[in-house]
Every structure is written in C-alpha cells, then in structure tokens.
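Entry:
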Amino acid sequence: MIVRVILLHHRTANDVQIGVWTSQVYTVAVSPVRPVITSARGAWSHYQQTVASGPRDYDGWPRYLTGRLPDGSARFTDAVIPGRTCGRATAGVVDAFLTAGRRVYALEHGNLHPVTACEAHDPNDWKDGWTLR
C-alpha cells in the first residue's frame, strides 16, 4: 500500500521548516513504504472537503492537491499537522479527513500521534484556535 500524506501547516511556514517536518514524517512513518508527502498552504471550505474526500479536481487549485487518482482512490491517505494546534482552514480539513475515515496525525517532537478529534478552543483565533486530540 502506498501512503500519500498531505502536510497541513501554517501558510507562513518556510521551506526549511517544511523540510524538517517532511524529514521527520519519513523517519517515523507507520508504513514500511516511504510516504509521498505533499505540502499545502491554507484552504477554504470547498477545498477542505475536496482534499479529504477527493470527489473531483477542484477548479483553481493545483491538481496535485485535490481530486482522485486515475485508479479512483483518494489522492491522500493520511494528513499530518505539525503541533497540536491549528487554524480554522486546517481544522476543516482535519474534520473532513476524520469523517471520511482517513488517518490524521499530529507531529510533535519528531513523533506522530494519532488524532481522533479537532476541537475549537478559541474560534476567534483563526491561526491557532483549534486543538488536535
């Protein structure tokens, strides 16, 4: 089985941070096969659903971020979020992944922790107002 991971992070993350997180995911991946990792910067409500369920390619977004693969499988099998907090857009993607039965992990100190819920602790803070449980 090929693991296709989307790394959901703040849009202000720089390439060095993204490289470190990607390296950590490769190192601790739960699959014996190295995952294919794609980085995503931010999202909106239709995109949040599309990236998780992959019903079609979403107009306006690069094809590598949305839709299904030619074999009909969803583009991403797993989502990884650096840290235990996230913003509104990422929380929407996390909820869509969990609803679709896909795996979500929080990446903390080089370890992947399974996520079962995403709860708003400060919905007025659009950058870090949600906690991954």
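The longest helix spans residues 15-28.
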